[in-house]
Design goal:
Elements (H helix, E strand, L loop, with lengths): L4 H24 L3 E6 L2 E15 L3 E4 L5 E6 L6 E2 L4 E5 L2 H37 L4 H33 L2 E3 L4 E5 L7 E2 L6 E5 L4 E7 H4 L7 E6 L6 E12 L5 E8 L10 E18 L11 E5 L5 E5 L1 E4 L4 E6 L6 E3 L12 E4 L2
Parallel strand pairs: 1-21
Antiparallel strand pairs: 1-20, 2-11, 2-15, 3-10, 4-6, 4-9, 5-8, 6-7, 8-10, 11-14, 12-13, 12-15, 13-14, 15-19, 16-17, 18-19
Length: about 350
């Protein structure tokens, strides 16, 4: 059978054209980009910071008298009762003085007992007519003088003993020992802090919040707490917002109170979530979808025709990994989650986020 060269040529050209078209189709096929469909979602606006637990009341315990610390009876973390000894300051001189005054009081009591016996003998003789009234008056006066000496000596001894006891430093109330900045053997004065104590009842959390966000926080706002590393959460509220801004950090101190938080000890770090605005329906988009967030926020929107468009948006807040959009988007819009992969006016294929 004869082969038509023109037919072969035509078939060959058709094959080449088909292959070329296949390459053209492959090259011009729109790229696929991940998208997310905008919906109204109920969310709350919060400020998340890290704070530290502390007791409501703190007391610095200082000695009444200067001297050398000879004994420390408690350490950090100990719980002490009201009046319980914390430390002992060396008081050799005071103890010697107390012993001397106690001995003087004992001697005065002995002389008073002797004066009493003398008075009783004189009184017996006077009653029987063997002693003059003057002798009785003299014995009575001597007894009163001896008794006065006893009272004076006992009072002096009592003062000396009380002063000696003041060299034992005691807890003013039931407390938790927060810190003990001194060591045994150290010489201290009346301005030296021996112990830092914290109240056992009640507690609060202190957190530093950047001044840009602290303006939105008001006393009474609800808050949630979780000890760092723990999943258990507890409720509380803002109690105070300091008006002063720390020049070094640009932060303001916020204090929060809480109810029951078992196992939360002073100094423990706490994850704090302050509810600035209760839950409401808003439009949320992932942060990755927003371009130029600090200057002129915008997002890329995929139209029904597959063409990328630009929308200028106004951002109200940035809770966690999302942005709250006040204007510029509506429900049903499809935003590009990888806007850097496309350009306005480009045709792309959207793939819905799972």
């Amino acid at each position: 059978m004869a082969i038509n060269r023109k037919s072969i040529t035509f078939i060959g050209l058709a094959g080449v054209l088909a292959a070329g078209l296949g390459v053209l189709v492959a090259v011009t096929r729109p790229q696929e980009i991940l998208t997310s469909t905008v919906t109204m979602q109920k969310t709350e606006r919060v400020i998340a910071v890290v704070g530290r637990a502390r007791p409501v009341d703190r007391i610095d315990v200082r000695p009444l008298y200067a001297g050398q610390v000879v004994r420390l009876l408690h350490d950090e973390g100990d719980t002490v009762a009201a009046g319980e000894p914390l430390a002992v300051i060396k008081a050799d001189v005071e103890q010697a003085q107390t012993q001397s005054e106690l001995a003087r009081a004992q001697s005065a009591r002995a002389r008073a007992a002797e004066a009493l016996q003398s008075y009783q003998r004189t009184k017996t003789l006077f009653d029987r007519g063997f002693a003059a009234e003057a002798a009785l008056d003299q014995a009575s006066a001597a007894l009163r003088a001896a008794q006065a000496d006893v009272a004076a000596a006992e009072a002096t001894a009592k003062v000396a003993a009380a002063r000696t006891r003041e060299f034992v430093v005691r807890a003013p109330n039931a407390s938790l020992v927060l810190a003990r900045p001194i060591d045994a053997g150290q010489v201290v004065d009346t301005n030296t802090t021996l112990f830092e104590l914290g109240s056992l009842t009640g507690g609060e959390i202190e957190a530093e919040v950047d001044e840009a966000y602290a303006d939105a926080i008001q006393p009474g706002m609800a808050a949630r707490f979780a000890a760092t590393g723990s999943k258990a959460t507890f409720g509380g509220q803002v109690s105070e917002v300091s008006p002063r801004v720390d020049a070094a950090t640009g932060g303001r101190l916020v204090r929060l109170t809480y109810g029951e938080m078992p196992g939360l000890v002073p100094g423990r770090s706490v994850d704090v979530t302050i509810v600035v605005r209760p839950a409401e329906k808003v439009i949320l988009v992932p942060r990755s979808a927003v371009l130029g967030a600090s200057v002129a926020p915008k997002v890329y929107v995929l139209g029904k025709d597959g063409v990328v468009g630009v929308r200028t948006v106004r951002i109200a807040d940035w809770p966690s990994g999302d942005a709250i959009v006040e204007s510029g988007l509506a429900e049903g819009d499809r935003v590009l989650l990888q806007p850097a992969m496309a350009s306005p006016g480009e045709r792309v294929r959207g793939r819905a986020e799972r």
